[in-house]
Amino acid sequence: MDFRNFKYFEAVARLGNITRAAKELNMSQPPLSQQILNMENNLGVMLFERHKKGVILTEEGKLLLQKVTPFLRQYHELLGYLSDPQNLVMGNITLAILPVFSATIGEALAHIWSENINIHFSIKEGHSKTIVSLVQSGEAHLGITRLPIHNTELNYSILGNDPIRVVLRKDDPLIAKEKILPRDLKGRPLVLIRGSTTHSAFAQIVQRFEEAKIKPTIIGHTETVLTLLKMVKHGPGIGLAPQSGCYQSTDGLEIVPFGESEIYIPTAVIWRQNETNPTVLKLKNLITKYCAIK
To answer: How far is CA 262 from CA 128, 188, 235, 248, in A?
Structure first.
């Protein structure tokens, strides 16, 4: 079967219309229809149900599309790579990371640079969902994100469990405590990391207050720990945030454990299952070593 058949099939499946697909592929409609028909005959299955307004994938067609899409994506990535002459002399590696790892990632990169000065790194910072999307789409080779991830195309290696901590100003009387319980925060204004970026930890925090029969006074949410630290430092609130980000700017602040037992956020380095680039795989191992949460 010709490689072009897969391109034809993907275009028709994506657009749901043979005429529109033919226009995108710069060919006429009859030859494209014949190519799809030949493909179905060769495979011995119907890939599309034909209707007056277009086509709909059959179950067999949906299964084939799942297999063809990653294959075509790699093909287009290769074309894009080869189209840039710089890539012939310099490797380009893109990382997508949580902002809290912007400091520790440098040590892992330094080890790669020490062995190969022709490696160029691009760093993209974002939230967990963004990072997973970037790695899955191939826009990033590696990512550092929170778990869980619900994606069968990605592998991951645990960096550690990030505990939730209470962030206080140093003039707050609660800093004398070894650990702060929900009842200690009754009536106190709280600032939390948005639930989508800490996954189940957000729900667990709220659950701890509910178990203590206390309604938390949440006055704000932030997207990053750095913003939370600034809000606590200059505002009336007390923060609850992952430990890994709590030491970015602690001047005037105190970090104290929360609850009788820890609430953890599992964090991992992620990469695509079909990744074969030896530099990427080596960097993955270095990230596991130098960005581990202890």
So the answer is: 21, 21, 26, 21
Positive or negative, the CA dihedral 13, 16, 19, 20 is negative
CA proximity to 72, closest of 16, 121, 138? 138
Instruction: With CA atoms as reference, report the closest residue to 145 among 193, 98, 194, 211.
Output: 98
The H-or-E segment that residue 195 falls in is: helix 195-198
d(CA 231, CA 139): 33
* 121: helix, strand or coil: strand
218-269 per-position pLDDT tens digit = 998 887 788 888 899 988 899 998 888 777 667 789 999 998 888 888 889 9
pLDDT(153) > 90? no
The first and second tokens of residue 25, run together, are: 């592929």
Is the preceding omega at residue 148 within 30 degrees of 0, hence cis?
yes
Q: What is the mean pLDDT of residues 149-168?
A: 89
CB of 166 closer than 8 Å to CB of 175: no
Name residue 240's amino acid: L
**Going by C-beta distance under 8 Å and a sequence separation of 6 or more, which residues neighbour residue 87?**
81
